[in-house]
Write a structure and sequence with these properties.
single chain, Aspartate Aminotransferase, domain 1, Aspartate Aminotransferase, domain 2, seven-stranded mixed β-sheet, three-stranded antiparallel β-sheet, 40% helix
Length: 382
């Protein structure tokens, strides 16, 4: 992993990518190829048995009644909001700190996003939410970085205030809070299966899940041009074309079998990071037993210098996200509501850095990153 430059005598580290598909175990790769071959041989590329099987398997895994595969995570959010009848002009509480897709989904249906700043865990600050003077129709909660929000507290408060809860679970596949998985708490939940997710496909994909039969029917109708499967050319709603294709479903059926093991590996790697970096004095996200570590986030007032230092050592990192979604959204979308200044989210965006981590990354690479982070500490980048 660490080689010596024969000319200079300096140590040169082998490149450590943030996420690298060449680390996929051969067993998994072989299973992917086998399942994709079955889809090709069957000649059923839209819908088909692999999609139905995945929808059933994923619903069973989450502990929900219904799952509908859709084209991607953004589509899942838009369809979820529509399925629970969020109307144009209604106000939706949404985290200031999230990926912009969460905000764009709200304005796509004509609703009004109201940003709620984050707490030390990077999640929506429930104290701010519960004391807001806004009249909300719903809360669109995001389980950021793989860590679950306190869903007992949130759902109890939402019930008292007659609010719908929509979960954005794009970063929290398999995360558990109080015995229930992410996606099983809200009126409806949206998932993305982008390839780098904890549960990812080999292309775009998404799903919407719910325990309500009428909501599930509406989701399926919206995703199919507004037409029910029982009557192909009869239209009930203004729909869209958003489908999980058979090949991606086949890949997901393979990956779902390994999700818990992969999450356990992520947690193990994150614990290695946490123990070492804490001793070096690096600040990290507030520790949680409810995280599946989609990202491993550290903070530094010298974030950009730290990132450059790691890049020079052949270690690739990411920033999630360099600008909080609320600020990005307000630059491009006019809104009748201006949310409160998201101080914590802005600080998060300017100081956070995501270190390499994946379900297939070997422990040896994490130890090498730790070694370089110790060197970074000695320079003053913590």
């Amino acid at each position: 992993m660490i080689m010596k430059n024969l000319e200079s005598g300096e140590r040169v580290m082998q490149k450590i990518d943030y996420f690298n598909f060449t680390e996929v175990p051969q067993q998994i790769s072989d299973m992917w190829k086998s399942e994709v071959s079955k889809v090709i041989d069957a000649g059923s590329f839209i819908g088909g048995s692999s999609v139905r099987t995945f929808e059933e398997n994923f619903a069973d895994y989450l502990g929900v009644q219904y799952c509908v595969g859709v084209g991607n995570g953004y589509d899942a959010l838009v369809i979820a909001l529509r399925a629970v009848e969020i109307k144009a002009g209604e106000r939706i509480a949404v985290p200031s700190h999230t990926f912009i897709a969460t905000w764009l989904a709200i304005t796509a249906i004509g609703a009004i996003p109201v940003g709620i700043d984050c707490d030390a865990s990077g999640q929506m600050d429930l104290d701010i939410l519960e004391t807001s003077d806004q009249k909300f129709a719903a809360v669109l909660i995001v389980h950021m970085h793989g860590q679950m929000v306190n869903m007992v507290r949130l759902t109890n408060w939402a019930k008292l205030n007659d609010l719908k809860v929509i979960e954005d679970c794009a970063q929290a596949h398999g995360a558990v809070f109080d015995g229930k998985k992410a996606g099983a708490w809200g009126d409806v939940a949206a998932f993305s299966f982008y390839p780098t997710k904890n549960l990812g496909a080999l292309g775009d994909g998404g799903a919407v899940v719910t325990n309500n039969s009428m909501t599930a029917k509406t989701i399926r109708i919206i995703a199919n041009y507004g037409s029910s499967l029982e009557s192909k050319y009869s239209y009930e709603l203004q729909g869209v074309n958003s489908r999980l294709d058979s090949i991606q479903a086949a890949i997901l059926n393979v990956n779902l079998q390994f999700l818990d093991d992969w999450n356990a590996h992520r947690i193990n790697l994150a614990n290695l990071y946490s123990t070492a970096l804490d001793s070096f004095g690096f600040k990290m996200l507030a520790k949680s037993s409810h995280s599946v570590f989609h990202h491993f986030v550290v903070f530094s007032p010298h974030r950009n210098e730290l990132r450059k230092f790691l890049e020079e050592k052949n270690i690739r990192t990411e920033i999630h996200y360099p600008e909080c979604a609320q600020i990005s959204h307000e630059k491009i979308v006019d809104s009748i509501h201006k949310s409160d200044f998201p101080g914590n989210a802005i600080n998060f965006a300017s100081t956070s850095l995501s270190l390499p981590l994946s379900q297939w990354m070997p422990v040896e690479k994490i130890r090498l990153v730790i070694e370089v982070m110790q060197e970074a500490k000695s320079i003053g980048y913590s």
